[in-house]
Amino acid sequence: MNYLAHLYLSGSDEAFRFGNFIxxxxxxxxxxxFPKPIQEGIILHRKIDSFTDHHPICKETKxxxxxxxxxxxxxxxxxxxxxxxxxxxxxxxxxxxNNYLLDFEKSFQTYAHHLTPEAKQFYEMxxxxxxxxxxxxxxxxxxxxxxxxxxIGYKVPLSQSIDDLKVHYTHFENAFQLFFxxxxxxCKLEINKMxxxx
Length: 198
Hints:
The chain is an all-alpha fold. 66% of the residues lie in helices and 0% in strands. It has ten helices and no strands. The longest helix is centred in the last third of the chain and has 28 residues, at 169-196. The radius of gyration is 16 Å and the shape is globular. The relative contact order is 0.15. The model has no long low-confidence stretch (mean pLDDT 96).
């Protein structure tokens, strides 16, 4: 799952949600240096990624991409799933997406001091460029994928995967709906487990 889905799947606790959002920036056991709610958000982030990587729906859906994308197919699928979550947001959350993201962006600053300077700079740049506000359009997806291309040194033309999305759009959409129902239930169970251990 990509950034928007990680936020949504966190529930309403701001510190927990922050941890889930920044999970990719925290390697190994470094999560133990964060406050407990942020630690738990980072742990959920890792569980979400593992659940997604091993899920048969995701494995099957990645085969819709051309071979040129190699092992980046999973990364691209994460972004595409955020596209469908954006488009269908009102089915999942009572707050309009733009308002939800603005609320998150304000709360992010409350916890940003826990990050390394490099990670803080990256996430503040990501937030300031409003990528998550634009996932619902092909143009917004292209901007996101072009940014990812730059970060990997243009080794793979990730933005060209939008052509694959357009060709197989209904298949991607149906796969998202099936998978997202399952991952929501999985995250609810995991969060309940964490809460019961307090």
